[in-house]
Design brief:
The complex is a heterotrimer of chains A (265), B (113) and C (96). Chain A is built from 12 helices and no strands. Chain A has 265 residues and is mostly helical. Chain A has one domain. In chain A, helix 2 packs across helix 3 and helix 8 crosses helix 9. The longest helix of chain A has 29 residues. Chain A is globular and about 75 Å long. Chain B has one domain. Chain B is built from 5 helices and no strands. Chain B starts with a helix and ends with a helix. Chain C is mainly α and 96 residues long. Classes of the chains: A mainly alpha (265), B mainly alpha (113), C mainly alpha (96).
């Protein structure tokens, strides 16, 4: 009986997959071919390419699109990251209810320093050489978002990766001196609320036909593009904090080293 | 004329040597059974192969901005790849309880005899 | 465009191969590593499609951070060599 059911189940699964593949391939075949102009979207593209530079002040048209024309979309994306961080804190965060002692003891700072990995001279030395370069590269990509490829998401992801390498090379004890849970909360909250208020102001004035008095600057200069640079910085900080928060929560169940809780234990 | 041919042959030999190192690295990383051996093979591909290919490109193209950037990438890889191999092998050393038998095989054989 | 056409086709074939291999492999660790190589190939494809923004993000997020998070999840649920045991059991059963 079970064998018959298994065979039937597999048959149904294969048929479903084939149907899905067929539907998707049919949808792809209806799309305009690569490089061809799509008549429905061509007006928007023309507007972006021809007037993008004068309307947004950004040399990099992609940055002008995602942070000026479609800033609402990017606002949603950064809030998605924030929500994901909150969910991971709820699921993996250590508190009195969510504590499995014999399991968590494997991941504490003491248990890891037992392996002597944090006092490794080679890793530490390379960390000293590499980390300033990595952080500088992330900040460069972040600040040049309106001029060259890059921007908030890429720069923030590189800064988050640099923070993770920092934690790997020097240990969580060193990171905790700089990067606490309070700092993460403050930075994320300030960045997201700044983004919302700034963009809300621009949308409000724009919808009512009022001049918003934000200087566009000379295209190509580093302080240009109106609100794009500060918004890039806000998105970048949110992404960096989220990435490191994920790593820290996955690794040990808390963002900063919570001393009061450890004392209660 | 002859200078161009010499440059071409140097480039070809260096490029082939680099490709050989990469191939050895890939085959070793896939075929070796023991973790530290695999790390060694991957390290050969990342350091020697990359450096030889970079030298070939450098001989063929001469020194200008792009090759200098490539050199920076090679510098970065020479910094990071051996260190990551070192870190991984250290983790293997501390966490694999069965590693002892691989490291002290000769002693054990003497003890058996 | 013409010179990169062959390179692009090879990369797309590799991409399809990686996507199938992720499904077929039983070992979760290998699946994560194949997924990371998929992201690296996708990163090169983004550069060929002239969108370096996405390439940087894909290299940092897809190949770097998400792979790290997957590996840490495997460590957390203690499934680093899941699938290996099943293989051994199958082999033993076959011998019998």
């Amino acid at each position: 009986m079970k064998k018959v059911f298994d065979r039937f189940y597999n048959l149904i699964a294969v048929i479903c997959c084939l149907l899905l593949i067929g539907v998707l391939l049919y949808a792809v075949s209806l799309l305009p071919s690569y490089g061809e102009e799509n008549p429905r979207s061509v007006e928007v593209v023309e507007r972006y390419v021809e007037h993008g530079l004068e309307e947004t002040g950004a040399t990099n048209i992609v940055a002008g699109m995602i942070l000026d024309y479609r800033a609402f979309d990017t606002l949603g994306e950064s809030h998605v990251l924030f929500t994901a961080l909150i969910c991971v804190i709820i699921l993996l965060g250590k508190d009195k209810k969510n504590m499995r002692r014999e399991y968590d003891s494997y991941y504490t700072v003491e248990a890891e320093s037992y392996h002597l990995l944090q006092t490794d001279t080679i890793v530490r030395l390379v960390g000293y050489v590499l980390l300033p370069g990595l952080f500088l590269f992330g900040i460069y990509i972040l600040l040049n978002g309106q001029l060259s490829p890059g921007g908030g998401f890429s720069g923030g992801a590189i800064m988050g990766a640099a923070l993770i390498i920092f934690a790997v090379a020097f240990g969580f004890e060193t990171v905790d001196r700089v990067f606490t849970e309070k700092l993460l909360k403050t930075v994320t909250f300030v960045a997201l609320s700044f983004y919302s208020f700034a963009k809300g102001y621009v949308f409000f004035t724009g919808a009512n036909g009022i001049d918003n008095h934000i200087p566009k600057g000379v295209p190509g200069a580093i302080l240009s593009g109106g609100l794009i640079l500060p918004l890039d910085i806000a998105v970048g900080f949110v992404v960096a904090c989220t990435m490191f928060g994920f790593y820290s929560l996955f690794r040990r169940g808390s963002i900063g080293h919570d001393i009061t809780f450890m004392d209660q234990q | 004329m002859t200078g161009g041919w010499i440059g071409f042959w140097i480039t070809a030999v260096l490029m082939l040597a680099g490709m050989l190192a990469f191939t050895a690295g890939v085959i070793g990383a896939n075929r070796f059974g023991f973790a530290l051996n695999r790390m060694h093979a991957a390290g050969i591909g990342d350091t020697a192969g990359l450096f030889l290919v970079f030298l070939a490109v450098w001989v063929a193209e001469g020194i200008h901005m792009d090759t200098v950037k490539l050199g920076l990438i090679v510098f970065f890889m020479w910094f990071t790849s051996p260190v990551s191999s070192h870190f991984l092998s250290q983790i293997e050393y501390y966490t694999n309880p069965g590693l002892y038998q691989f490291l002290h095989r000769e002693k054990q054989q003497k003890g058996d005899a | 465009m013409g010179s990169t056409e062959g390179f692009r086709i090879v990369l797309l074939l590799l991409l399809i191969g990686c996507a199938i291999a992720v499904n077929l492999t039983k070992n979760l660790m290998q699946a994560v590593i194949i997924f990371m190589s998929y992201s690296s190939i996708m990163c090169i494809l983004w550069i060929l499609m002239e969108s370096p923004d996405l390439a940087i993000t894909e290299a940092a997020v897809g190949a770097g951070i998400s792979g790290t998070l997957f590996l840490m999840t495997l460590k957390k649920i203690k499934a680093e060599d899941a699938g290996e045991n099943e293989k051994k059991i199958k082999k033993k059963k076959g011998k019998r």
